[in-house]
Structures are given as C-alpha cells and as structure tokens.
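[job 4471] stage=fold_predict status=RUNNING
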Amino acid sequence: MQKLTGKTAIVSGSSRGIGRAIANRLAKEGAQIVLTGRDPALLDGAVREIEKAGGAAASIALDLRVPDAPQRLADFAIDKFQRIDIVVNNAGATKRGEFTQLTDEDWADGFALKFFGSIRLTRAAWPQLKANSGSVVIISGAGGRTPGAEFTIGGSVNAALLSFTKAMADAGIRDGVQVNAINPGSIRTGRFQKRLEAIAKERGVDLAAAERHIVSESRTTRIGETDDIAGLVAFIAGPEGRFLQGALIDMDGGSTKTI
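[job 4471] inference complete, writing structure tokens
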C-alpha cells in the first residue's frame, strides 16, 4: 500500500545522488514530487524516470543560493500540485581541504546553498506545511557531530543545520509540523566516487582497495547506498515515523562514535 498518496513532496538537490533516490522512493510511496537542481537535462531525466514508474513529478531548474529561488520553488509546487506536504532539504555540497587554504568565498558558498537554502525553503513552505500537518526532513551529515580537519566548512554547516532542526522542531510542535534531520555518512554518489578515485591514485591501489581503506579508517560497516537514506526519509515522512520530532538520526554505518 502506498503510504504517501495525495501528498506533495519537494526534494531539493534531486537531479542526482541522494536527492534523486529520495525523490524516486517518495514517488513510489505515492507522493507527487517536485524536483529541483541546477541542471535542466538531469532534472528532465529524473522526472521521466518517476513518470515511467507510474508516478507524478515536475521539475524546475533553480540555484537555491539565490535568495528568491526557494520562494519560487514553493510557488512552483503549489502551482503544479496545489499543496506542499513534505520538504526534503537535501541540496548542498561543501568544499573539503586544509583550513588555511579555504577562502572566505569557500565558506560563504558552503553556507549559501546548504544552510541558507534550507532555511529559506523551509520558511517559504511553512504556511503550507502548517496547513497540511506536513514534514520537513533535513539531510545534514555525520560531520556535524564528528568534525574533521579536512571538513571544517561542511562540519560547521551541518552542525548549524542540526541546531536549526531542533529549533524548528520546537516551532513544529506549536504549528503541527514534523521536523527531523538525517546525518548520512559516506554514501556511494558521484561525489564519493571522485573521492574514492583520488584515494586510489594517492595510495596506488585499485578502487576496491581504496574503498576498503575508507571503511577501515572510519571504522564503519560499509559504504552506504543512496537507497539507504531514501528509505529512512520515506519512513520518517510516512505514518509510522510521525512520532519522531527533532530527531538527529545518524545513518552512517557507525562513523559517529559520540553519544
């Protein structure tokens, strides 16, 4: 039985990777999907994939770093499907590197999309979420709770998102909106593939050996799949997950070692 029939979900950063997997899974559960990213061709392909599987979807190419883009996205969703029930704030990648080599522009760009994009989209959709007892899921990251020297920007952005999640969950109790966050660990995406290739080249090993090295160094069970995160989003936003409120869920194969 489809758990999300009649619901409309916005998934940011959904042209590829984790966001695309989330969009496909929510569509499979019956939701109408609004996808967004910066590449129209990739978005068109993602929409066709959902429609081919029998789902309903629409997309709009936007750069959520632009201040008015999140409101345009919310307006587009209402125009296409007349409601917003679920917002998945997934868009955003941050630059890794040695702290002293990261510029002010790198830091500003890191916060512009993942942090401020999430804030603005949540704010733009909140009246609809409030009217429909909706759900917000923020895709943050394990670095927000376990910072690393090569991930100063990402860890800071993710930590800010976790604080935002807790604050909005409290507001959500008042307004009837569910708000939670997921902290993925290393997930098999295009971005992870680039990191894997760099490690393989640096160590002079093949990709399989480089992956074993990452798993061993991080003391985790394995590299995650995009469908792992998508399944958790579907659970949270579905009827079985509605008691979750303000939860910061580590789905990282055990990379987070703190309490």
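[job 4471] summary: The first strand starts at residue 8 and ends at 12.
[job 4471] exit 0
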